[in-house]
Amino acid sequence: MDWGVNEWVAVGSAALALISLALNWIVVRRQTELQYETLRAEMDAEVVAWAQDAIDCVSDAITLAEGRGATYPAAEFARHALETSQKLSSVADRGRLFFANEEPDRHGQHKEAAFQGYRPPILDAIIFACGRLGRMEAEGGADKEAAEFLVKCRRLLVSEAQNAIDPRRRKQMLKRLAIGRKDDKVSAFAMASDLGLAMEALYPGYLDRPRGPAWVAEREAMARRAV
């Protein structure tokens, strides 16, 4: 079939339209992903701010448990413990704005709406920390058992907060969208290795494993695989 100029122009126009449509779809998809991540980041930022307050409060409770009798005499301990317990209670209720109780129709029907159901673990960590601190006697020396319990509460809190914001997913998405610094030539793992070796030199046995060049290479390889 012989095609004239008009036919070839029509075919070329159609091809250009298809290419333009494909490119536009790619751009729109990228923008949609970026908008979603931006919205998610804004929501995550609120959770992060709350989690930071919660971590600080539990850390204050640990400090009180470890410093009872020495750093904090009985009267001072009682005052700080009361203040910290109230902060923990408050931050737990603030957390309910982000982490709702589960199965509210099956448990605690006699309570107010926000308190019906089963608490998620992230709130349990704060409530239990508040209860442990509130039941500590003002008299006595350092309460190592209570401090260890509170450390476990803080670790649960941090782990659940990390699960909520999923920083690994955010890191992968930002890399895929080519956002963020790419010109940092200093290996963070090498810096962490230097710090770890310095602590090992000061306190032999501090590290659970050597942090030499092999450790740095292993961690950098793991980071590359995660991309």
Structure, explained:
The protein is an all-alpha fold and 227 residues long. It folds into two domains: 44-166; 181-227. The protein contains seven helices and no strands. It has helices spanning 5-67, 74-95, 121-134, 144-165, 167-176, 188-202, 213-226. Helix 1 (5-67) runs antiparallel to helix 2. The radius of gyration is 27 Å and the shape is flat. The relative contact order is 0.09.
Strand % is under 5%
- Count of β-strands: 0
Query: On the 0-100 scale, what is the average pLDDT?
Result: 84
As residue ranges, the low-confidence spans are 177-182
Distance between the termini: 52 Å
Number of helical segments?
7
Helical coverage, percent range: over 70%
Helix- and strand-based class? mainly alpha
Sheet having the most strands: none
